[in-house]
């Protein structure tokens, strides 16, 4: 099937530290002639913040059309007869990592490391890193090759379309500037060969005044062109950033659980790189190419040896740019990965500053961050050094060309075949040929950076948005009947978090989900919210599968207070009324009173106009939870889900709020997820979870009499024992 194997040293670099396995699969795809975005492979392989499991690699490979088998080499040896390329699992700096092994010859391995690029290693050295685990990947009949589908910068050039008028004005100004510049070259020729030769001062004065007008006109044109380009660049920047952020907000929840915040935010920086490329660099390419043609035309008219002397450095510079293309591109990709990791660690440390200070771990956090900053700077220095070497060589060739022109021209003057004015005119004209050419050749680093940024940004933009089923069912009279049938769910390719769950909740019932941490209670709540789709089974509300509802409409009918309450920068009033700005202040006050939040709000200097700070930092955990509860109660939901919503409150306030919820939630289906069992005593039904399974259900009293798991939890709490990971069975 594959008589000719393509790209024998194909390697796709990872975009972050968790992308190594998808990058290996992408590299093998490229090896066999198939190009596919990393984000697609991440989805196939179930890559998340913990990386990719072995099962994920196998499943991802099968989705791509490969036969994939995992194995273990007890003696950690490679043979030339093994099927290459293969994926090997290694331990590097105590971190799990995957690499591609392309071949083994004479005791040396050809390695494709998604983090660092291609390299050769002695088999003995690789053995110290290799865990012995490997994956054989072979294309099957269903595997299809394709053309290069890597996202290019040209995808974003369409952003220039709305600015055709500005582009036309910039182009016109540039053409005028080119001809004015060429006119100045002829000014010096006439000045030297004719005006100075005749010695007429009046002619010199008039000629110089005309040239002064040209200079003024040039300055005005340059200013106007710069202003137009700045205006257009700001417009493109706005579109890029807003489009990216709009798309981010519409992505499914698993996108956010599989990526670090810093990785997502690092793409914002990419928008500036792309904007510069398509607004400034692309125009520079067009305009410098235009000047190259105009200047080259006039040089061709001069012809002779001077033209040859000017063109030879051009050819050498083009060859030089081609030689630097590959290495620069790979180094840029590696630096992008390092920078994304650096930003993720910084965001993580800032968000967790309270924990760091509590544990006195500031030094440790600084060292972790410093290490990544140093890595980024080192890679930046390497990139800068490579760019400086390339630019230096281009400059050297340019100067050699200029020297050759002066040398040959001077010899021509001495031999009487050329005038001094003509030589100076040629030198100035060559500046309009060699100058634009030099700028075009030195654009490679910025263009390469833009290409890498475009790929990174486009891979996020290509991720399908969450399917909100906008044409789905919109049921205003939701009663709140919930049925869960044979439900199983797993995050990505991990083991099942929930397995074969069956339960029913009648309209208006108040039920509780209890169990040890990690037993699947919160996951089930997220499934009820349509944050994820179950792997098997179904959830119905009022007899309708929740996937058939319009997602936006459905979520508006459910009030969900999560474990980790997040308040946004703004006032308390803004946070309670979030998304319901049309409601009057009185409705906000009533909701706050119902959530027992009015008590502490009234003591604040600015009451409801008090700013809560970033993430609600100026408020305590209990105060944030009460505001979140008020936010939900304001919406008058048909189904209310409280996920540890009172965990940060004292017992007295908790009991008062639960009594208020009982009153307000009368007729509303209410699901309470709790560790403190005292809050679920009055529930109509209690569902007990253990290790992803529903093990018991019934009223509180019945479970105490005849239950096993619930009784054990109750006794443990009553005696003050820890139930963080209580085992439900003797």
Summarize the structure.
It is found in: Cell membrane. The chain has 22 helices and 16 strands.
Label the CATH architecture of the largest domain. Up-down Bundle
At the first level of CATH, what is the class of the largest domain? Mainly Alpha
- At the fourth level of CATH, the homologous superfamily of the largest domain is ABC transporter type 1, transmembrane domain
Which structural class do you get from the secondary structure elements?
A: alpha+beta
**DSSP helix fraction:** 40-55%
List the helices and strands and how they pair.
Blueprint: H1 20-31, H2 38-45, H3 54-63, E1 66-72, E2 86-92, E3 95-105, E4 108-113, E5 117-122, H4 123-127, E6 130-139, H5 164-198, H6 201-249, H7 253-257, H8 261-302, H9 304-351, H10 353-358, H11 362-415, H12 420-442, H13 444-461, E7 482-490, E8 496-505, E9 510-515, H14 521-528, E10 536-541, E11 544-545, H15 551-556, E12 558-561, H16 572-576, H17 585-594, H18 598-601, H19 621-633, E13 639-643, H20 651-664, E14 669-673, E15 685-690, E16 693-698, H21 700-706, H22 709-718
Parallel strand pairs: 9-14, 9-15, 12-13, 13-14
Antiparallel strand pairs: 1-6, 2-3, 2-6, 3-4, 4-5, 7-8, 7-10, 10-11, 15-16
